[in-house]
Amino acid sequence: MPTPKNPKSSPSSQSANARKPLVYGAVVVVAAGLLGFASYKATAPDTAKDTTATGPAAEVSADPDAGVYPELAKLARRDADDKLAIGPADAPVVLIEYADFKCGYCGKFARDTEPELIEKYVKDGTLRIEWRNFPIFGEESENAARGAWAAGQQNRFWEFHRAAYAEGAKEKGFGKDRVKALAEEAGVKDLDRFMKDLDGDAARASVKKDQEQAYGIGATSTPSFLINGRPIAGAQPDETFTRAIEAAAERAKTTGAAGKAGESAK
Question: Start and end of every Thioredoxin domain (predicted)?
Answer without folding.
Answer: 38-250
